[in-house]
């Protein structure tokens, strides 16, 4: 089971939108039931990354994270989305 931390400024609005898109991506690629998504505020990201496989955040990577970082901004803007999706799928395959 992969643990994915999704973070935004407050842990509510944009992380929820990105969580849906990441979940749809993973399910469409055969990962349904193989991951857990945890949403949080970016200020809580470092603590939530303990034991996590990746952090997808709509902000810059915070100091002190111990897992892989993927920018969530492309899921909001559409620019660079294919690259972000590839990063997530590559991390899931590890």
UniProtKB/TrEMBL annotation:
CDD domains: PTS_IIB_galactitol. It comes from the Bacteria. GO terms for molecular function: protein-N(PI)-phosphohistidine-sugar phosphotransferase activity. Gene3D superfamilies: 3.40.50.2300. Keywords: Transferase. The keyword Transferase applies. GO terms for biological process: phosphoenolpyruvate-dependent sugar phosphotransferase system. Residues 3-61 form the Phosphotransferase system EIIB component type 2/3 domain. It holds the Pfam family PTS_IIB. This is Phosphotransferase system EIIB component type 2/3 domain-containing protein.
